[in-house]
Amino acid sequence: MSTAVVFFEVEILDAKTKEKLCFLDKVRNKLQRILYLPVPDPQWYPARQSIRLDPKGKSLKDEDVLQHLPVGTTATFYFRDLGAQISWVTVFLTEYTGPLVIYLLFYFRVPFIYAPKYDFTTSKHWVVHLACMCHSFHYMKRLLETLFVHRFSHGTMPLRNIFKNCTYYWGFAAWMAYYINHPLYTPPIYGEQQIRLALILFLFCQIGNFSIHIALRNLRPPGSKTRKIPYPTKNPFTWIFLLVSCPNYTYELGSWLGFTLMTQCLPVAFFTLVGFIQMTVWAKGKHRSYLKEFRDYPPLRSPIIPFIL
Amino acid sequence: MSAAAQGTSKAAHGDVAPKKKKGPGALATAYLVIYNVVMTAGWLVIAVGLVRAYVARGSYHGLYYSIEKPLKFFQTGALLEILHCAVGIVPSSVVLTGFQVLSRVFLTWAVTHSVREVQSEDSVLLFVTAWTVTEIIRYSFYTFSLLNHLPYLIKWARYTFFILLYPMGVTGELLTIYAALPYVQKTGLYSVTLPNKYNFSFDYYTFLILIMISYIPRKSIGRLHFPLQKSAIRKTGYTG
């Protein structure tokens, strides 16, 4: 027995002015179809459209099915323009390529940074070369993960974010790189011991961070946007899921603590601190939404630091 | 930046209108009235101190020393206003208030107090006078607003005197920072040089120059923001 095809009539109003933007009859079930239909302003491409049931409510998703929404056969939706959008991939690639390149400019002591007699010289401290390798490795890893590992639930973010994010990443990269590669750089007090410990911590956390990214990717089959609780896998680096909701941030903090210890540089410590604060905010938000979405969410887990935060 | 108009909030407590902002409670209002009265009194003390010292000396040089302590006390006390915004008893932006108060506190402590040689400069008197008159008007404006009895004279004075006092204050501040530069450079005040074990450096001299440059965007925004408020208040017919 075939199910009857249900058609909807859809009226779209502007969320702010309440004026009718368009009226569509014979709309099939999926919301997605609406987004690609002509709307008054051609620059309102789908990624910019926020369609909601209530003017001040949350955006509906592309996959939402009209039949399951609390609307009759004539549906009224509110439209809000989210402003110019840019894809997450573009933002990530731009904000991560910057530090990679900028750090190397300082490492190779390109002219106009330090006194002319130091142009294109190399540091005499081996920890400076090690730091450059670690920093470059870190950002190359991020770029590759952006291209091949991450699965994004939202395609885009507001355009102004790219300026904000790049200022942050590029600015801090320049500030750190300036001191680490400075001709008057002072290596860590406890010398080789300190550097070795720092390197182990850094590498351990890089592997850990990567393991978590892979685990999160595997949670979600390609093309799907389903959300599931992440659990430890066979990889020991994922066992931290027992104690923490966002171990990718935990490992990221660890990596930068390692880098701070390795370089013994105050600007690096500042960068670690600021990053930690931001990641804690994100982790708490994520933890809260896990708790809201899943009744059976493991109670032992903390957002970012086991038992503490 | 005016204090919320309490008592005139017409929304009944059971009202559905979700965006109606309730003013601070009775306790908070009482506290704010006391705070603003104390601040008004404090800046009056400074004003009287300046006048008396001028009359006693017969000249306006070096008047800073006669009001140094109350100036530091009451200007630093204004940090509480950041807390008021953060807690929500005053409906202003924490960030905006923070910038304004910290800018004043910076000039009081990190420039005027720290660089002894500028204390006898006339530019100090210029900004101190501007601050004093501005603050007396501002705090009495808030006091009366909270008590729902704002004399038109005070409202008028606040928005009119601003036209003169704002550039006066900015000029005094800039000249003072400028005067401090050579001493900062000579003594390396608050500066850290390489090499050191934290691999960090800070040049207070360059920092002060950057601060002076930042006055251009910061003060232009402030200069524009205030009169905009004035016309907004005229349009809404706010009578305080």
TrEMBL record, chain A:
- How is it placed in the membrane, per its record? Multi-pass membrane protein
Which Pfam families has this protein been placed in?
Steroid_dh, TECR_N
Pathway(s): Lipid metabolism; sphingolipid metabolism; Sphingolipid metabolism
Superkingdom of this entry's organism?
Eukaryota
Q: Which reaction does it catalyse?
A: (2E,7Z,10Z,13Z,16Z,19Z)-docosahexaenoyl-CoA + NADPH + H(+) = (7Z,10Z,13Z,16Z,19Z)-docosapentaenoyl-CoA + NADP(+); (2E,8Z,11Z,14Z)-eicosatetraenoyl-CoA + NADPH + H(+) = (8Z,11Z,14Z)-eicosatrienoyl-CoA + NADP(+); octadecanoyl-CoA + NADP(+) = (2E)-octadecenoyl-CoA + NADPH + H(+); a very-long-chain 2,3-saturated fatty acyl-CoA + NADP(+) = a very-long-chain (2E)-enoyl-CoA + NADPH + H(+)
Q: What is its EC number?
A: 1.3.1.93
Alphabetically, which GO biological process terms does the record hold? very long-chain fatty acid biosynthetic process
List, in alphabetical order, the Gene Ontology terms for molecular function in this entry: very-long-chain enoyl-CoA reductase activity
Describe the location of the 3-oxo-5-alpha-steroid 4-dehydrogenase C-terminal domain by residue ranges: 156-309
Keywords, in A-Z order: Acetylation, Endoplasmic reticulum, Fatty acid biosynthesis, Fatty acid metabolism, Lipid biosynthesis, Lipid metabolism, Membrane, NADP, Oxidoreductase, Phosphoprotein, Transmembrane, Transmembrane helix
**What transmembrane ranges does the database entry give?**
86-108, 167-185, 197-216, 237-259, 265-283
Q: What is its main location?
A: endoplasmic reticulum
Cellular compartments annotated: Endoplasmic reticulum membrane
Domain spans labelled TECR-like N-terminal:
8-81
**Entry GO CC:** endoplasmic reticulum membrane
This molecule's function is given as: Involved in both the production of very long-chain fatty acids for sphingolipid synthesis and the degradation of the sphingosine moiety in sphingolipids through the sphingosine 1-phosphate metabolic pathway. Catalyzes the last of the four reactions of the long-chain fatty acids elongation cycle. This endoplasmic reticulum-bound enzymatic process, allows the addition of 2 carbons to the chain of long- and very long-chain fatty acids/VLCFAs per cycle.
Family designation: Belongs to the steroid 5-alpha reductase family.
Name listed for the protein in its UniProt record: Very-long-chain enoyl-CoA reductase
Automatic annotation (TrEMBL), chain B:
Per its record, the protein catalyses: (3R)-hydroxyhexadecanoyl-CoA = (2E)-hexadecenoyl-CoA + H2O; a very-long-chain (3R)-3-hydroxyacyl-CoA = a very-long-chain (2E)-enoyl-CoA + H2O
Family recorded in the similarity comment = Belongs to the very long-chain fatty acids dehydratase HACD family.
Note whether Membrane occurs among the keywords: yes
Q: Name one GO molecular function term.
A: very-long-chain (3R)-3-hydroxyacyl-CoA dehydratase activity
Major localization listed first in the record, in broad terms = endoplasmic reticulum
The record ties this protein, via InterPro entries, to: Tyr_Pase-like_PTPLA
Q: Which organism is it from?
A: Oryzias sinensis
Q: Name one GO cellular component term.
A: endoplasmic reticulum membrane
What keywords are assigned to this protein? Endoplasmic reticulum, Fatty acid biosynthesis, Fatty acid metabolism, Lipid biosynthesis, Lipid metabolism, Lyase, Membrane, Transmembrane, Transmembrane helix
Q: Where are the transmembrane segments?
A: 32-55, 76-103, 159-181, 201-217
Q: How does it sit in the membrane?
A: Multi-pass membrane protein
> What this chain does, per the record?
Catalyzes the third of the four reactions of the long-chain fatty acids elongation cycle. This endoplasmic reticulum-bound enzymatic process, allows the addition of two carbons to the chain of long- and very long-chain fatty acids/VLCFAs per cycle. This enzyme catalyzes the dehydration of the 3-hydroxyacyl-CoA intermediate into trans-2,3-enoyl-CoA, within each cycle of fatty acid elongation. Thereby, it participates to the production of VLCFAs of different chain lengths that are involved in multiple biological processes as precursors of membrane lipids and lipid mediators.
Query: EC number(s) in its UniProt entry?
Result: 4.2.1.134
Matching PANTHER family, A to Z?
A: VERY-LONG-CHAIN (3R)-3-HYDROXYACYL-COA DEHYDRATASE, VERY-LONG-CHAIN (3R)-3-HYDROXYACYL-COA DEHYDRATASE 2
| Protein name in the entry | Very-long-chain (3R)-3-hydroxyacyl-CoA dehydratase
The ranges of region (Disordered) come to 1-23
Q: In which pathway does it act?
A: Lipid metabolism; fatty acid biosynthesis
Q: Can you say where in the cell this protein is located?
A: Endoplasmic reticulum membrane; Membrane
Keyword Lipid biosynthesis appears in the UniProt entry: yes
Pfam annotation, one family: PTPLA
Name a single GO biological process. Answer: sphingolipid biosynthetic process
